Amino acid sequence: MFPETVSDRTATDAAALLTELAISHGSKDNISVVVVELRRLKGISLVSDEPKKEPARRSEDKAQQIEF
């Protein structure tokens, strides 16, 4: 889809490229582009060693589980 790789460019470069693509594809209206640059934080693991916890149940969920 993109004419060039954007993975090694800045968010500003990506926004400019997306704007150029919109114009080159015939956009006649205002163009807004939002690019969010996410960076991995050093020392923070994205995978937890802790077991997955069950979500807390709401009171109406508990009521539905009662057998009569």
UniProtKB/TrEMBL annotation:
Residues 49-68 are annotated as: Disordered. Its EC number is 3.1.3.16. One of its GO terms (molecular function) is protein serine/threonine phosphatase activity. It is an enzyme of class 3 (hydrolase). It comes from the Eukaryota. This is protein-serine/threonine phosphatase. The gene is ga06022.
